[in-house]
Amino acid sequence: MANPDNQSMENIITVDGPSGSGKGTISLLLSQKLGWHLLDSGAIYRVVGQAVLINGVSLDDHGAVAETAENMNISFRINSETNEIDPYLDNENLSKKIRTDEAGQLASHVARIPAVRAALLTKQRSFASEPGLIADGRDMGTVVFPAAKVKIFLTASAECRAKRRYEQLKNKGVSANIRALLDSIKLRDERDKNRAIAPLVPAQDALVIDSSDMSIEAVLDQILDYSSNRLKL
After folding, report:
1. Is residue 2 a part of any domain in this protein?
2. Maximum CA pair distance of the chain?
3. How confident is the model at residue 58, as a pLDDT?
4. pLDDT band at residue 13, thresholds of 50, 70 and 90?
5. What's the domain count of the chain?
6. I need a labelling partner for 28 at 20 to 30 A (CA). Which of 5, 11, 35, 44 fits?
7. Tens digit of pLDDT for each residue in 201-230?
8. 80 to each of 76, 84, 104, 197, 207, how far by Cα in Å?
9. How far apart are CA 228 and CA 230, in angstroms?
10. Is pLDDT at 77 greater than 90 in this prediction?
């Protein structure tokens, strides 16, 4: 296993935060702006959840879930039509399947299993390659890349995040109930913040940004300014 305190590549920006904070959009924009690689760790956990379903593995069998995570064949490809990063499991595009609220809840459940997190740690660190990496997740700055020079913790109110998720689903033609989304977000926040392994908290040296009343452009500019000073971009 790679030593997280001996990372040879300096150009790593971690973007952590709760669901709906905008970290996925910001991470993609940063990746495109800088021409760096992108790691969507949340998608990895969602794919694990789908792999568990596909293989009929019980969530109570932590060993089998971890084995599924370790052995799955996952890759990411840029979708030229949507300008998004699509996750593939054994060459099957799972983009639509993993973007549901149910898939998010399942991802949160498998992420609580220590053996799963251990199995995926090396996979996630392997994404770090030149010229740089934008790492999007919940424990990128605290666990996966603790030596990163730029750590961002992006947050927003639960109400704001529920509204964003509702609009996102609506634009994709997916029916949703905003009250149910809000309840789901609050439930996941509680679970993620209080799990024993890698709880959702800002790294001590992270720049915390509340995007509730900020535009995507304003958030992006603030992160780029901060990163430029830290990494001499």
Report:
1. no
2. 49
3. 94
4. very high
5. 1
6. 5
7. 899 999 999 999 999 999 999 999 999 989
8. 13, 8, 24, 36, 32
9. 6
10. no
Amino acid present at 166: Y
The order of strands in the sheet holding 207-210 is 37-40, 133-137, 12-16, 150-155, 207-210
209 occurs within a structural domain:
yes
Q: Where are the alpha helices (DSSP H) in the chain?
A: 23-34, 41-54, 62-71, 95-98, 101-111, 114-125, 158-171, 178-194, 216-231
Q: Which two tokens stand for residue 44?
A: 């990895």
Angle between helices 41-54 and 114-125 (to 10 degrees): 130
Residue count (the chain):
233
Tell me whether residue 68 is in a domain.
yes
Q: What is the CATH number for 199?
A: 3.40.50.300
**In terms of residue numbers, what domain contains 113?**
12-227
The one-letter amino acid code at 228 reads: S
